[in-house]
Amino acid sequence: MKTKKIIKTLSATILALFALLTLFLSSAVIFDWFAIRAKEGNYVLFIVWVNFICSILYLFAAYGFLKSKKWTFWVLIVALGILIIAFIALLLYVNNGGLHEAKTIKAMVFRMLVTLSFSLIAFFSIKKIVQ
């Protein structure tokens, strides 16, 4: 029982930090804070917006982990779905000659794997989901 609480607390902390970092970086590009937009090179704006939206969903999920809410899993699944759709759109964009950075594709794969991992942690650690 205590192990699950530690897992949920640690997951909430890591997810919240990931969310805040994502929120800062994506909003810095969107609103051009600290002239970050110029440093990013060929960023793909719709991917930046997807990351911004997912960062907000991650914050809700971090709260859900702390409070052991069963909807935490579903929030993360929605974020994963959004990321998958955006990744497919990104691949289409790239295949049609769209300007991008190679790191964008790697970052999207990483973000999808992180979101999937937290979804699985939520599914197995919040008792109300698995009965």
From TrEMBL:
Protein name per Swiss-Prot or TrEMBL: Uncharacterized protein
Chain segments annotated as transmembrane: 44-66, 73-93, 105-126
UniProt keywords, alphabetically: Membrane, Transmembrane, Transmembrane helix
Organism for this UniProt entry: Psychroserpens luteus
Domain of life: Bacteria
